[in-house]
Amino acid sequence: MENLVKMRNVMKNRSNFTLNNINLDIKSGFITGLIGPNGAGKTSLIRCMMNLMHIDSGEITLFGKTHFEATNEIKQKIGFVYDENCFYEDLSVEQNKKIVSMFYNQWEDSVFYSYLERFQVPKDKKIKQLSKGMKMKFSLAIALSHHPQLIIMDEPTSGLDPIFRREFLDILLDVVQDERKAIFFSTHMTKDLEQIADYIAFMHNGELVFSDEKENIFDHYVIVKGSKKTLNEMNSSKMIGIKETSVGFEGLLQRKDLVSHDNLIFEKPSLEDIMYLTVRGREHASSY
Q1: Domains of the chain: which residue ranges?
Q2: If one looks up domain 3-214 in CATH, what number appears?
């Protein structure tokens, strides 16, 4: 299980934001999901990984090398799928392909056209005439047609209809059947990652809260529910985050901090539960 990407103590200071001491691995043969609320630093981290933003300290290696050592070689091995359109709107799918393909040594037209056929993307249509879903399919076809080892996606399913989102996720699962490839998938739509991700990294305010196998994360946390009376009776200092209602509460705990109480209900959390209650707890703590 090879680490295609290694980030060690990565720091990036901006005028209103800091990436703070990020340590993260992306392993071949797996899908790694990056979650976090808007503004958490997900896109900034991807920009640093792509060498579109230079880090202040630490090190990022891709395929065993830094961008300083071999940026052209590294970029040949990366396929990038971005939420916003980065192609020429007034040119057709075919015309855009001709431009992009010139930059890749291992580009294969046959692969590209097979994806266009599979995705039912008309090659003669202009990009601006394509729907959001069709643009995403085209972007994915471009990303996969030069045999990348690493596919990086920034909010790729945002705004897509449920049917195409499911189809898109199935395509990604097919891609990582080739164990030499890896997918790094940034999103705030946690349900997508619950379906397909092997590893989850969670960012908040420029910091990495955790990075682990998905099943380990679910085993690590538990949702605790009870009445307001029960909350007042118990020691809630170890709660990571609490949401109170008029009749009761819902909290997030590490399993090692479970408390025994007759009137508590314990449930397995979703990724959304973990993200929401962790952010809620951190923001509550920072307000004091």
Answers
A1: 3-214, 218-286
A2: 3.40.50.300
- How far is 140 from 147, CA to CA, in rounded Å? 12
How is 175-236 classified by DSSP, letter by letter?
Answer: HTTSTT-EEEEE-S-HHHHHHH-SEEEEEETTEEEEEEEHHHHHHHEEEEEEEHHHHHHS--
Residues constituting the chain: 288
Total-model pTM: 0.90
Distance CA 67, CA 46 (A): 14
Q: Which two tokens stand for residue 73?
A: 């070689």
pLDDT at 72: 94
Q: Can you read off the two tokens belonging to residue 221? A: 């946390």
Low-confidence ranges of the chain (pLDDT < 50): 288
Alpha helices in the chain (DSSP H): 42-49, 67-76, 93-101, 109-119, 132-144, 162-175, 190-196, 214-220, 228-233, 271-286
